[in-house]
């Protein structure tokens, strides 16, 4: 069974770069789409971006100028870099696997999430 | 971008009640509409995909339907473990989006 696990610092200073890694076990990064999603405390879900075919990426237009998603297939990991963070970037960050077929498209596996707080 | 309007934002119902949550999309998304349940401190859990297909392992009391750009999640007989926040999500547009959520309290 595929499992995803986020890791990274829980505290980031304003204006610095938030960096998180998602480790995938029980499945290959080459077979599906994978995504980052975040949820500010007490609020809804916001899609950050995703990659597919081990290298193609797509980002939320509202975050595009600050986001990079990279992939390390040798480690079965993918990473999120979010630059110039502010308090508004404080959130629980989830990684998730996305199933895409000709008629279906959904997130079927999620990591447990990791809280990142932006504060000095 | 496709806007998702979910209603109500919260509801409280008794065990055994029939509960309906609605998600309206700002444009056609075909059947690319999914429903998730999220409990406090946990990741979202997929309930329904492609508007009406029940995810494996999800109880049969959950159903999804579509009428144009209006989508409905129905819990036929509310159970104590159905508390949490429910989110709809469209995957028709490459710029994915989620509804604002419906918080369900079970009395």
Describe the structure.
The complex is a heterodimer of chains A (120) and B (107). Chain A has strands at 3-7, 11-12, 18-25, 33-39, 46-52, 56-59, 67-72, 77-82, 91-100, 105-110, 114-118. Chain A has 120 residues and is an all-beta fold. In chain A, strands 2, 4, 5, 6, 9, 10 and 11 form a 7-stranded mixed sheet that branches. Chain A is globular and about 45 Å long. The termini of chain A are far apart. The mean pLDDT of chain A is 95. By secondary structure, chain B is mainly β. In chain B, the strands form 2 sheets. In chain B, strands 2, 4, 5, 6, 9, 10 and 11 form a 7-stranded mixed sheet that branches. In chain B, strands 1-3-8-7 form a 4-stranded antiparallel sheet, with no helix packed on it. In chain B, a hairpin with a 6-residue loop joins strand 9 (84-90) and strand 10. Chain B is globular and about 35 Å long. The mean pLDDT of chain B is 97. The chains are: A mainly beta (120), B mainly beta (107). The interface between A and B is medium-sized, with 23 and 26 residues.
